[in-house]
What does this fold into?
Amino acid sequence: MADNVSSPVSTALAFQADRRANMMIGFGCVFIVVALFLAANFGGAGIGSFVTVSVMFIAIGIFKRSSVYLRFDADYFETKLALAGGWHTVLYSEVTSSEVSDKLVVVYYRKHGQPADSKPQRIRIHLGELRTEDLPLCIDAFRKRLPSPASA
It folds into this structure.
């Protein structure tokens, strides 16, 4: 028996900010080698900071390689700007204006239900950490989905 209900087509685009992730993991490994060198030559005094920094660099690098930085869906986009921060979800209908350049996107938006005379909130999305091959596609996605400064 055939079902006439079609599933919605996913128009989601996802971008990862892993351009510097390998560098972070590499620095973490270098700090571990330095900590082991200090431990072998100086008896382990003062290596706690090197171990802590190396573990932090490796953890941040692994997180950046495995997580999504920016996601576009049919009627909203969301971004995770900080490692410990939450997702910023913005409906395209809430966007009052935007400024898109090759390195930075600034989005001004006002949540539905807020007074029209209230100050819009601002999100600054740095594009420098996106993969080089994903950058033009991401910029194009912003330009197609968000209003330009002239239309605001």
